[in-house]
Amino acid sequence: MHTIKILAPIVASLLLAQPNLAAAKPADAAPQALPQVTGPIAVTKDSRPFLGAQAAIASAGYVEDEYFLTGQANTYDWTGSGRGVKVIAGPGKYVTRILVIRPRDAAKFGGNVEVTVLNASLNLDFGGPTDFAQMVKQGDVWIGITTKAVTANALKKFDPVRYAPLDWSNPAPPQARCAQPTMIPTYMAGGKEALEAMAKSGAVSSWPQYEDGLVWDMLGQLGQLLKSDQRSAILPGFSNPWVFMTGVSQSSIYIRTWIAGFHDRYRTPDGKPVYDGYLGVVGPAMIRINQCAADVALEDPAQKLTVPDVPFISISSEGEMWQARHTHQPDMFSRRGGIVTYEVAGASHRAGDVPGLPADRISFAPIPDMIKAGMQMPGSAGAPNLIPAGAKPNDFIWQPLVRGAFRNLELWARQGIRPPLARGIALDAKREIRRDANGNAIGGLRMSYIEAPTAAYTGYLTPGGFGGVTGAKRPFSLETMKALYPDQAAYLAKFSAATDRLLAGRWISAEDAAAMKATAAAGPAVTTKP
């Protein structure tokens, strides 16, 4: 299962922003042809995929293969009229890679393909299936795609021979490139001062000779490939699938930008979308459309998406409310799809998982591999200590809601069963989070840990930067605990009732509900007798 582990030092990898210096071409371009597939790339004692997890999946009757996709991609910008896009450079050649985890026996295919936009916030690939156990139970497929030049370069550093073909070359002429490119909006890095500090540190995640904005055609052409008979090159013998795009944090803001500018652009020959649904986690805003583009400001009306003709579920923590308070839009439905938004009260950017569940062995490469690929492990002085005195880092458990959202997305797309709805986190007149007497957020999607709280949770500490992905937890005093729960039985009763409501509402699975209750029952006492 996919545990979201986005730590504050990730922000150090979000790099510099410059105005767009590229000259726009007046003519638009139709989507390119299907990409060519090379592979599976051989695995030997000296060469293996980065982020590979064959040992973790073999016992489930699954296999893992790695392929290169080669195609033609453009660089785009917004037209300035609605959400239209225009070509400003290209097409140019690209080569990216995909990891494919599939049932060994195609006859066991359950019909779903999850395409994960691999996260690049560590300047190397990470990410995995949203719900590995359910994927295996259903016989579904997972595909992870490399989506940034910096991670492609990390792959080359990890294995220069295996990954030599990767190519993210910038199709724009040198005079049309900007000096300090990035896909990350300025406000997400914490403002201009933070950007200047990053520049002085020498941190780099984009370069003029590459173009991260090629990602849109890569995603579109992969979707087209999966919807065509040529999917047999990577899924031999598999029937026509339902294809879902998923992503966490930076990858989620890719998804929102894709929906705004490219969902309608990429279609099958009979006019149907190439992606049947989307799940974006902890990314309620839009990324830049190319690495020299201007920011799409949080207050820009373009942040509010047009309802797509497929389902889109956006699930965020309280930790993204500094963004979501600007971009939140009401739940809306179209005939075949819609947009549903969840805001998880008490939660921070990193989604904690239920203690005792099997460890995630898919979403992250082993630390020696990550270091070999160029990741620098943060030291004790790697980030400022923003946690208030007397508090701890926010470890709020809400990964079960992510798994539940993905199951509801599948039901919505395949069977037309709409997902449950939740009110947003309550804001005051200044659009700050409203809190109860114990310091916890009012409203929102509420886990048992906020309905039967033992601490006050803060989702974020500052808008953007390190504090934008860092929250705090302040355990309740003994007096508060005694006032809330006369004894341990009272606490467990309240926790169990809240968990039962989540299960009945289709927010979490029966497996997660049982694990949550068992952990609460086996945990330390919440009160101390006098």
Labels describing this entry:
single chain; 530 residues; alpha/beta; Rossmann fold; 10-stranded mixed β-sheet; 3-stranded antiparallel β-sheet; 13 strands; disordered N terminus
Produce the secondary structure layout.
Blueprint: E1 36-38, H1 54-57, E2 62-78, E3 85-103, E4 112-117, H2 132-138, E5 141-145, H3 149-158, H4 192-201, H5 215-226, E6 242-248, H6 250-261, E7 277-281, E8 311-317, H7 321-327, E9 332-333, E10 338-344, H8 367-372, E11 392-393, H9 399-415, H10 448-451, E12 455-458, E13 472-475, H11 478-484, H12 488-504, H13 510-522
Parallel strand pairs: 4-5, 4-6, 6-7, 7-8, 8-10
Antiparallel strand pairs: 1-2, 2-3, 3-5, 9-10, 11-13, 12-13
- What's the total helix number? 13
Strand percentage lies at 15-25%
Overall pLDDT: 90
Largest sheet: 10 strands, mixed
Brief summary:
The protein has 530 residues and is α/β, with parallel strands linked by helices.
Structural overview:
With 530 residues, the chain is of the alpha/beta class. The protein has one domain (8-373, 387-415): 3-Layer(aba) Sandwich (Rossmann fold), CATH 3.40.50. The chain contains 13 helices and 13 strands. The chain has helices spanning 54-57, 132-138, 149-158, 192-201, 215-226, 250-261, 321-327, 367-372, 399-415, 448-451, 478-484, 488-504, 510-522, and strands at 36-38, 62-78, 85-103, 112-117, 141-145, 242-248, 277-281, 311-317, 332-333, 338-344, 392-393, 455-458, 472-475. The strands form two sheets. It has a ten-stranded mixed β-sheet with strand order 1-2-3-5-4-6-7-8-10-9, with helices on both faces. Strands 11-13-12 form a three-stranded antiparallel β-sheet, with no helix packed on it. α12 runs antiparallel to α13. The protein is globular and about 65 Å long. The two termini are 42 Å apart. The relative contact order is 0.14.
